[in-house]
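Structural prep section.
Before we set up the soaks we want a predicted structure of the protein with adenosine monophosphate in place, mainly to decide which crystallisation condition to try first. Input record follows.
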Amino acid sequence: MHGGEAFKTSSIINEEVISIIESCIPFAPLHNPANLIGIRVAMEVAPNLPQVAVFDTAFHQTIPKEAYLYAVPIEWYRSFAVRRYGFHGTSHQYVVQKAAEELGLDIKESAFISAHLGNGASATAVLNGRSVDTTMGFTPLEGLVMGTRSGDIDPGLPPYIAQSLGISPDEVVDLLNKKSGLLGLSELSNDMRELTIAANSGHVGSKLAIDVFVHRLAKAIGALAISLPKIDALIFTGGIGENSALVREKVIGKLGAFGFQLDHKANDHAVGGIGGIITDRDSPVAIVVNTNEEAMIVKQTLEVLNKDTK
Ligand code: AMP
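Run finished without errors. Recording the tokens verbatim:
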């Protein structure tokens, strides 16, 4: 759910919270209305049951201004809340906590880059447990190459394509959301498993799609590093991050400037929920962590409910 700038943490749901979620509908026209239907129905069915709203944006509310503002007229921010919000907050927060635990680090003195690579994909720099920069922006279309989403493009492209194809700006955005990314590049599939198999048997488009995905991810990791004084670990998660040894190998291969060196055996082993450290002993750490957004939602819900009853 999109909480705009209003929600910095999860919140117990009341009429005021509902009206703020409603005010965020323009930012998340697919998600917030559907969530509101669920909230209303649950209220009707179980009026005395407390409900808690957990926002995918809340974790990123600690990002500083220089990272969340676009270099557009500041009036757009003041009047229309145009800024970078970031998403996948529950997943990034969960895997960072988990990685800190697994590596025996104090989260309050830690620095991570977390790469959530699923059908949607984003990477986040997390300093001392707080998000300080992320790749997704005003909408989840910005940033990395995804299954069917383009990620970053030149803003001059949409009007050019609209004119070239004779379609409306909304139709261009639809193509950038649904027909781009891995699917658009490969002309085959948005599914990394399928692309890996096809690339191995010589399908040129699939190899190209994987290469662009990897290049842009490695570039984003490099960019996120400037928000951190050190990198305790690079975390891979999400369906691709947890399972694609190939993507991880290619990404780590591009991060030599940071000193990363892959442990090939550990990397090949860390699939299908196994996880673990995938880098050599004298390399900065890269670790595979299985995300569990549901567990994070439950944890935050209990925290909010316990606070409310104290
Ligand atoms: P998610 O949205 O987190 O469920 O992730 C979906 C993505 O993970 C899809 O692109 C899948 O192809 C990819 N994925 C799942 N399992 C594997 C695998 N064994 N190898 C490569 N990619 C995988």
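Observations: Residues 12 and 308 are 8 Å apart (CA to CA).
Flagged for discussion at group meeting.
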